[in-house]
Fold this protein.
Amino acid sequence: MRTVGAKRLLTAALTAAALALSGPAPAQKYPERPIRLIVQSPAGGTADLIARIIALHLGDALGQSVVTDNRAGAAGTISAELTAKAAPDGYTLLVASVSLMAINVTLRAGRISYNPEKDFTHITLTGKVPLALAVQPSFPAKSLKELIALAKARPGKINYGSAGVGSSNHIVGELLKTQAGIDMSHIPFKGGAPAMAALLASQIELYIATVPTIMPMVRAGRIRAIAVSSARRSPALPDVPTMAESGLPGFDATSWFCIVGPAGIPRPIVARLNKEITTVLDSSDARERLTAAGVNVETTTPEGLSAFVHAEIEKMGKAVRSSGARVD
């Protein structure tokens, strides 16, 4: 009996030791094969630029190639569902936007199969993209204060354009209306290019757009930016004041992007990815390229990203509900 008991104790000890050794092994060996970095939009956009910069430098840091995979469609839900269903091993990551992680929760309630807080491992924020209030040079309001005064004198008469219902452009416009106490009419377009064309053709008075979208026209003198939506000024438009500086204290709403993976990625791998990706984004090369494109580089801890996403879901949810926006 003593021999059997001793054998059992020895077997249990060896099993425990094996389990202890097997736990950190995947993290120690990671990565052993190429990593897929999914992008929720087509090539050429801001998310794609962020992905390609990270892929280039992260591959060098990890000693494995990082391959970008553009999976556009259905307001980001295709890429989100693909990522959420992937194995939680650190080999599938996603560049996700504010629409996918915060706006869709309310705007597409009941129509999305993923939960941004529960179905993803949060790794880091990558950057925020301010939106700007763009008008023609002849528009009578030269500042946000003058725009608010004009809108109050002409309730519902000023038309503002966006890249579509539920876009970050639309939601920032609704936040502006709520915080400024004004009434403007929303005119949605199928993308930023048609909205810009409408502004240039005087079909709308105001276009709320991401800074990268309007920079070429601002520099050409064809339109004028009167304020940006972020808490700090955009390095790409340093002379344009923020909305907070222009009479709306505390106003801070941006389009933003982050890196996530499927829920359940081992913590050592998450820590490694966070460290390497933030190092990439803090490098002078990446920061200069993204800043030139109108992106304010900003990184977080995984826990910091989780808290940020939760707060953004609350904020964007209120804006969507107040706007009455719906997806048919």
User: Anything to note?
Assistant: The longest helix spans residues 302-323. The CA atoms of residues 205 and 296 lie 27 Å apart. Residues 130-228 form a domain with the D-Maltodextrin-Binding Protein; domain 2 fold (CATH 3.40.190.10).
